UniProtKB/TrEMBL annotation:
It comes from the Eukaryota. This is F-box protein At3g20030. PANTHER family: BNACNNG10540D PROTEIN, F-BOX PROTEIN CPR30-LIKE. It holds the Pfam family F-box. InterPro entries: F-box-assoc_dom_typ1 (IPR006527), F-box-assoc_interact_dom (IPR017451), F-box-like_dom_sf (IPR036047), F-box_dom (IPR001810), Gal_Oxase/kelch_b-propeller (IPR011043), SCF_F-box_component (IPR050796). It comes from Camelina sativa (False flax). PROSITE patterns: FBOX. Residues 2-48 form the F-box domain.
């Protein structure tokens, strides 16, 4: 008697599905109604009891998934199950993606067009939803995604550019509510702030945190006589639909310094900084954070002078507080081109440092030569969810 997939025990089915890469679950669902129901009722994403790290990145405007796991203890920690693969979503493979943001298991993808388009994607459920603009999108737009107290997901759109045709600064904020499928104009302004919506932003508890600084003011001759302001931390609170207070970072960070933010579980934020022309990298983790207050603890410090092949470009980094290590994605570059990616495991006081190639070739079989850094970006740790967007 032949055993059908539908006849397999539930525990075995769940174990099989938990080992399937998250971006390929859609194809698995179509093979069996029972499997489809299981994956939509609960999260089945684990690896032998461990919790793998997952993120997304773009290479030459193609969206790829990054996944790895940390195995071992003390100074024997190793990266396992490491891969980068181009996503198997036919809709997203048909467009060029220039930016990606994430919150609560949802990815907000921005297409590379003069009049950009937005699409929200839940990789776990395989759902996509195109977002129509209130009037029109602009290539200078910046975005963030979050949710309110009722877990209703929203998109923040920020437009800030100088329109030479009318001779004035255009500053607009709009918010989109996925539950009502509608945009609203927000009556808020940040005329004195430069907000880094992409390079230095991360989602935490439904809100989005950014690197930001006071705008540099120039005189009529274009000269600036004031010292460059350093970065602060700023939160957009999706519950109140407003910005919080300027919050201190645990280090001094300027325009051309390299840095980034990463969420640590559901309650903490990590911040990384490498000053320009310095080999020193430091990572701090919050002990308390909300839109109007923050406190920090040092996590680790690293001297890149000891590791000449390490080249952090402001991409993803991940924190494992239990193992007391950070995993930083770095790249071997020549000029503006990336020839090799690697994941570096860094321990406290540099007790252990491991470096494992990520194998960019696996995700770019259609790309010849190196990857242009201007067409490359990372997004930090992703956690799947059952949030419905259709």
């Amino acid at each position: 008697m032949t055993t059908m997939f539908s006849d397999l025990p539930k525990d075995l089915v769940e174990d099989i599905l938990s080992r399937v890469p998250i971006t390929y679950l859609g194809a698995m669902r179509s093979t069996c109604k029972r499997w489809n129901t299981l994956t939509k009722e609960r999260i089945l994403w684990k690896t032998e009891g461990r919790h793998p790290f997952m993120g997304f990145m773009m290479m030459q405007y193609k969206l790829c998934s990054l996944r790895f796991d940390l195995h071992g203890t003390f100074n024997k920690i190793e990266l396992v199950d490491t891969f980068i693969k181009e996503i198997g979503n036919n809709l997203l493979n048909q467009v060029k993606v220039s930016k990606v943001f994430h919150c609560d298991g949802l990815l907000l993808c921005v297409t590379k067009e003069d009049n950009a388009r937005l699409v929200v994607w839940n990789p776990y459920l395989g759902q996509t939803r195109w977002i129509q603009p209130l009037n029109a999108y602009h290539r200078a737009d910046s975005y963030a995604i979050g949710y309110d107290n009722n877990r209703k997901h929203k998109i923040l759109r920020f437009l800030n550019y100088y329109d030479r045709s009318v001779g004035q600064l255009i500053l607009e904020y709009e918010i989109y509510d996925l539950s009502s499928n509608s945009w609203r104009v927000l009556d808020i302004t940040t005329p004195t702030l430069e907000i880094e919506f992409y390079q230095g932003c991360a989602s935490l508890k439904g809100d989005t945190y950014f690197f930001t600084k006071e705008k540099i003011v120039y005189d009529e001759a274009g000269d600036n006589y004031n010292p460059e302001p350093h970065d602060c931390l700023l939160c957009f609170d999706f519950k109140s639909e407003s910005f919080g207070q300027l919050l201190p970072l645990p280090f001094v960070h300027y325009l051309y310094d390299v840095g980034g933010l990463s969420s640590v579980g559901d309650e903490k934020l990590a911040a990384l900084s490498q000053p320009k022309r310095s080999s020193k990298v430091e990572i701090w983790v919050t002990t308390m954070i909300d839109p109007n207050a923050v406190s920090w603890n040092p996590f680790l410090k690293l001297d890149l002078g000891l590791f000449p092949h390490f080249n952090y470009l402001g991409g993803s980094f991940f924190i494992d507080e239990e193992k007391k290590v950070a995993v930083v994605i770095d790249f071997h570059t020549y000029g503006a081109r990336i020839y090799e990616g690697a994941a570096c495991i860094i321990g406290e006081n540099m007790k252990y440092v491991r470096r494992k190639r990520l194998g960019l070739g696996e995700a770019r079989s259609h790309i010849q030569g190196a990857v242009n850094f201007s067409e490359f970006a990372c997004c930090s740790s992703y956690v799947p969810s059952l949030a419905q967007i259709n």
